[in-house]
Amino acid sequence: MKKQVSYRQLFPIAVLLAAFLSLLFSVQSVGAEEAVSSSTSEAAALTENPAVSDASIASQAESPSAESGESRPASTETVEKADQATAAAQAAASGPEAVPNVGTIQGESQASPYEDKEVQVSNVVVTKTDRYGFYVQDVTLDGNSRTSDALYVVSKEKVDVGDKLSLEGRVKEGYMEELSVRQGQTFNKPSGSLTVTMLVASKVTKEGKADLPAPVDIVANMPQDTVDNDINNYQPQSEALDYWESLEGMLTTVKRPRVLGPQYRGDIYLLPEGYQALPLNNIGGLNLRPNAQNTATIPVYVGNKFIAKAKDYFNGDVVGVVTYRGKIYKLEPNQLPDLVDGGLQRQVSPIYPSEDKLTIASYNIENFSANAKKGETPEEKVTRIANSFINEIHSPDIITLIEVQDENGSVNDGTTSGVKSGEKLAARIKELGGKTYKYTEVAPLDGQDGGKPGSNIRVAFLYDPNRVKLVEKEAGTSDEAASFSGGHLVKNPARIAPTNPAFTKVRKSLAAEFEFKGQHIVVIANHLKSKIGDDAVYGSAQPAVQHTQAARIEQAKILNSFVQEGLRQNPNLKFVLTGDFNDFEFSETAKALAGNELINLMQEHDAADRYSYFYRGSNQSLDNIFISKNLAGKAVFAPVHINASFMEEHGRASDHDPVVVQLDFSKDVAASTSDSSQPSHSAGQSSVAVEQGASSQTNPPSSNQTGQGQAAGSKKKGLPQTGQNNSGWTVLGLTLLMFAFTLKKRSRNYLKAI
Do the strands 188-189 and 458-463 form a parallel or antiparallel pair, or are they unpaired? Predict the structure, then answer.
């Protein structure tokens, strides 16, 4: 966005130029960003900080949640180019430029062609109001689908929906978040964010009433899959980001939509009734797919108190205006019909205990600690998680725990042990009638594994000593790398490559060797690098790039090499790798991890049921289980959908669903010996079909999720560089002197207007 020069600023500049330009042949101006701060008596919490799994939505704090970055304060602008100053002076003298409609202001582009200019526009109608201003739309549309016919007006003028107006003001490319900044605060530009076309009104004239334009069916012409492939061309017909821009501020609708997932930070995602452009999963949602985005999922702001879960639906159309906040486009509704319960129930695992079958589960328990104080892990959450182990996943023999914190949670006092956290969970399971589990871990070094500061997040194990034996060996230290000797772990448990730079500020994978029915199994719990640091899907860098993926791929290669070494020493050694991989079953991370040694069970699972997490309108599979090929044909696998599609009000205990695998050793028990170091079959054998667990409604299978493009560049409404002008003459100085006193007088009125 171009920077603005106030009349008060221009007055001394004009005087100086008049005095000295006669002695000079050229003048050079230097520009800086303008500080923008709109005062209000009440602050609004409008900015969102999304992320994808990690130390909680600490992942969100370390974000679906992910997309937040460092903010840079805007600085006060000094002097613009001499020719811009002249143009501003001339515009001030001549008054605002009359434009035929709002569509002309918006233009066929990402940035308004009238940016930083004074304009006058008539025949517009108010479509929505808020505490900082209102939205207007042309009463008579221009018939051009490439231009938005609406914009946001910054004004304290009291208006009502349906008021017909005439407006004067300055066109601005700004951020909706800046409107909520309190007086005296400095606005920090949201890094990687697009801007919104606004009119900072100096005059608002009411001219009666007008009917509201018919809302646009926003999904009908939404470009499928592609957000933005060409940063240099405005293509609303083929790129979703540009399509949203062509509807900026306009009334739109989603026809009788269904809810795709739980409300998060005031937003829910909707899909219109009857949508069939892509295969739906078993709860009527959309799974992520390779090299694509589910662009038809529409976010709607409903507020933090709104309770909704997947499969709920509205009994009418949702109508609202298109806005942009928190690096996403969304609808701010004018009306919300009644929400109807869609009947989705939390599942129970289809996998039940069996004497000769080993059951292993992976569960991200979302920033769990023994600290029950406010803001930490309340007792209610401990109970919910314990109950889910007993009643929903049927007390597995081994549970890999993801996101265990040290015993006092986020208290940053140097504490690293998480034993009390794990033992608290084990004790609660027993209190509620479950098994007597033991807990084991290797604590991280203080502050070295990422996640919520002070929490020292790690992965760990609960296991049933009556069913499996943790092979008795000295445990590894925090910075001691796991290794094999004679086909068995030297230290048990032990962290994999904890000093490798690839695992800097990342939870270290933890290997533990167990014995079950004479078989030795190495279980590796994982929590790879989070997605925080990736480009926002609808941010200013396009195409969006997954900057964090390279680190996950490197971590995956390290894990695969570790498995290779174990199998080289002992081809009969069994491997099960579980956890939150912060990547998808089809990803390059998953491919690197599997290599030629492992089977990706989620990839083999029913396509309509491949998910364990919900983020920004799409179901996705961050949680996965891999098994060594010498376990092929012995595995039954199932994600258990108890959390990701629900809110706490529905019983949710975490933001992730657990995943479960059961390994059948019934045919091996009679022939097995306690010495499993003797090879039975080659680790390089080809995989056979893996049995699937939970049967589900099978819709047409989809090949599933997000591809983020290569290279980045900002496309929309960025801050242009200030250039140079070498064309000043004596006559220019005299001209500016004539305008100077007029500008001084106008400055007072102008400042009042903004």
Answer: unpaired
Where in the chain are the domains? Answer: 7-53+71-190+729-748, 216-340, 357-672
Rounded CA-CA distance 365/377 in Å is 10
Please say whether the beta carbons of 154 and 198 come within 8 A. Answer: yes
**Phi, psi (5° rounding) for residue 166?**
-120, 135
316-360: pLDDT as tens digits: 999 999 999 999 999 999 989 999 999 999 999 999 999 999 999
User: What are 329's two structure tokens?
Assistant: 């486009």
Contact 457, 55 (CB under 8 A): yes
CB 461 within 8 A of CB 525: yes
Pairing mode of beta strands 150-154, 196-209? parallel
**What is the rounded distance in angstroms from the CA atom of residue 401 to the CA atom of residue 389?**
11
Looking at the structure, give the CATH architecture of the domain made up of residues 357-672. Answer: 4-Layer Sandwich (3.60)
216-340 carries CATH number 2.60.260.20? no
Span 453-509, pLDDT tens digits: 999 999 999 999 999 999 999 999 999 999 999 999 999 999 999 999 999 999 999
Task: Express the helix, strand and coil content of the chain in percent, nearest 5 each.
Answer: 20, 25, 55
DSSP string, 326-344: TTEEEEEEEE---EE----
The two tokens of residue 334 are: 């004018």
Is the CB of residue 753 less than 8 Å from the CB of residue 200? Answer: yes
CA distance linking residue 754 with residue 752, whole number of Å: 6
Q: How many Cβ atoms sit within 10 Å of the Cβ of residue 712?
A: 18
pTM: predicted TM-score of the whole model, two decimal places: 0.78
